[in-house]
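Teaching note: in complex prediction, the entire set of molecules is handled at once rather than each chain in isolation. The prompt given to students was simply: 'Predict the structure of this complex.' The entities are:
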Amino acid sequence: MLKPKKMCKVTVAGPKSIRDTAVSFFYDKGILHIDDYTKPDNEAVLDIGTPTERASELSEDLVKLRSIKKHLNIVKKNGGKVISIDRPNQKEISEQINKIDAQIVDSIDKIRAVNDSLSLLKAKEDIVAPISSLGLDWKVFTQYDSLSYMVGYLPKNVDISRFKKELSSITGDVEMFHAEYMGRQVIALFVIKDKADETSTLLSNNSFAPINLKCLEEFEGKSDNILKTIKDEYTQLTNEKKRLKCAMEELGEKYSSFIIDNEADFSKDIELGEVPLRFAESTNAFVIEGWIPQEDFISMEAELRKKTDGKIYIRSRKAVEGAPVELKNPKGVKPFEFLIDLYSRPSYGEIDPTFFMFLTFPLFFGFMLGDLGYGLLTFALFYIIRTKVKVAEIKSVLSVLMFASFMTAVFGIVFGEFFGAEHIFGYHMTPILHRLHHPITLLNLAIGMGVVHVNMGLMIGFYNMKKAHGLKAAILEKASWMFLQVGGVLLALGNMTAGAAIMLVSAMMITLGEGLKGLFELPSIVANILSYSRLMAVGLASAILALVVNEMAGMAFSAGGIGLVVGTIILLAGHSIAIFLGFLSPFIHSMRLHYVEFFMKFYTGGGQKYIPFGRRD
Amino acid sequence: MVEPITAIAAALAIGISAIAAAIAEKEIGTAAVGAIAENEDLFVKGLIMTVLPETIVLFGFVIAYMILGA
Amino acid sequence: MVKNMVEPITAIAAALAIGISAIAAAIAEKEIGTAAVGAIAENEDLFVKGLIMTVLPETIVLFGFVIAYMILGA
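The expected output is the structure of the full assembly:
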């Protein structure tokens, strides 16, 4: 529990004839963590292995399958009716995949074409509609011998009557139509050719935006009819698009299990087929290097030998460097591993702090939140949610929160707080320590826990250092800090000479052990311990918050009448917020105390995750 | 009852530390949201980083409370 | 809490003690925190180191808190 699982470094080798047997064996067992082989230089005898042919074939099909899955929006449904597909050979599956793929590509192209047509239509509509609002026939816009015409928009702020006046001052040989279209002013001007330029100038002075009619040369007849034609075509195309999309959905429904099942099978076969890329191979043999947990090794060895008729070569040795790390913790402690993983896996030789976190994380949490009511409520809540959730990681988080809730309830009894009040529906609780009345005691407790926690960290660090670098290093780098604290305490108690002397000696040890930077960090031990005062601060804050909610509700209740309703709302809303904050804050602060103040005293981390090759359920 | 100047003191205590915590959390929170936009897995870590400055206002709160001697 | 008869100006002093150090700590943490988040976005393994760096200035407000506490004579 205090150390990660012991690993054996193994070498497995044999003739290529038994390679696939060995591979499926390890896949099913799911215990071998492979060290990928890299070719050291060009002259090396062994190269990386070649994937099976099947794997390469499958890769292509898998890619197609995945793209089909995406286009058809296929999602694995739990508990859906599984149509068992008898497995035709690979060739047939491949053909089926290609067929589906082709259909999809076809549909997508068709949809795209329809979308293009629709956009084009919309553009045309944008031109025809304003013209039709002018009530003009299309034929009006042709080349004239003596007239020029301009069609377009005038900004809203242009006053039409004023514009007409200005126009008439240029010439009387002009005809203007105007209308409103979608909140904008549309005008069509027909003016005698020699006055065209002046008119243009007037128009541009008024921010005239012309409409280009060129694309509509194909149209004939009244604008209204044209508009109707466009709208009809639009509707027709939209329906076509809907049809195509429906067809795709049906396709998806029909083949969804085909696709999902095959994707799973392919993935597995490809993984099996491509794993030789991680081995070393020669023309006739293969070599695998990896790690297997010690406890699994012996049974594995016997079984593998039998499966390969003794042709396999297996060698194991104890090693530390490069070993993957798999934590080994009993069921109660295990959920806390996710907190460790959030930070970093322990490196192979050092102590696994999960157990310590199991002890102190809920402790700090409970100390800070400390309310019987909140604790019981959240414990029940998290328990219920946990039974409904399937994902393992979320289950761990919920377990951790359940432990935290439990300790919260315990401290709730100690502090005599039940939803912020001192009595449970009339039964008066006698607190062992009333938080709001004795903040000093609270602070002292917090600092006390800080001292204990920090020194726990130092002691673990001492053990780790001793193991890795010997007794002297351990004393100089870890024990020295503990002596420093002793000296400091003596000094504070008034024993000047002894205190100062011990502190000086400790400082020297630290400098010897950690160098000059160690010396600069001397004050940090004070800061680290003081950091634990947050246990008191957060604790007080949560107690105060609950109290205030109750007081506010109390004021509402005593007002009577509607006050009862208001008061209840305050209670519900207030305590919900208090619980939410009450979980966020202590969680983060407890975590932070562990990650920063505790871990920094001994933790290296950086361990490699244990990822065995093979079947995962 | 609380003397006026004492009340101001309490207000300053909580107010100034609130501004402080807010300034810190705002910056970190913005960066965190940007990171999450690029990679949704970073949500938890981003959240943790963002609320780290909470301690600051917490201390202000406690001092304000103690000032009020309530 | 114990009924604490605090002189008004003393109270202001405590407020200033915590308030100003709070701003200080916040300014520091905000800069470091932002940079840390940027680093984490590029490499998730840096979460821990980033976190530690970000909370380093906490000491600042911590000392402010202790002094404010002592000012209030508790």
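Point out the following to students. The domain at 4-68 of chain B is CATH 1.20.20 (F1FO ATP Synthase). Chain B touches chain C through 52 residues (CB under 8 Å).
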